[in-house]
Amino acid sequence: MRILVVEDDKDVAGFIVKGLKETGHVVEHADNGRDGLFLAASENFDAIVLDRMLPGGVDGLRLLETLRAQGNQIPVLFLSAMAQVDDRVRGLKAGGDDYMTKPFAFSELLARVEALTRRGKTEAPTTKLTASDLEMDLLSRSVRRAGQKIDLQPREFRLLEYLLRHAGQVVTRTMLLEGVWDYHFDPQTNVIDVHVSRLRQKVDKPFPTPLIHTVRNAGYMLRAD
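Request: output the structure for the sequence above.
Response:
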């Protein structure tokens, strides 16, 4: 996806842009409302992450109201420190599709942005996840590869499920800590490496083709070569 981030806080913007690029998205950044409005109105994006309080004479509300008045219906996620109910209501009434408050977890922001771009599409609930000859049944909580049952501990199952849901994508350590362990900080341990190693022993070692790959200086990826 191509995403526009309009955020004046350098650290917050850097964190979001880096995370989105790590997950395979193309990202443009504007640090003020005027530039953000120009980019949003003149280029094609799949979604916008928009701060409320912006320099440049155009705040987030005015930026979005202008886009909507022009007939631009691009999905917009407000991301703001303005957390009162009235603030959120104003953002949604201005045409926002979702509203998150700071501080925030990147994994949630990513999930919400991706959910916005799927809006209007009807999909049957996912009950099975597959990659090559690996199959996970979410209802029976069972895993098989090449027809052979693989017994996993609960955390191993959750880790493999996360990798399968992001098959073909680089999954960073930050994403795994938040999505599998529910950590919103780095515990400075090798917990991820230990569990990935155990998972490989069960999912990859008995079979000729490895599926779980290390992406140097980035994280992991589940894919069939």
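The mean pLDDT is 91.
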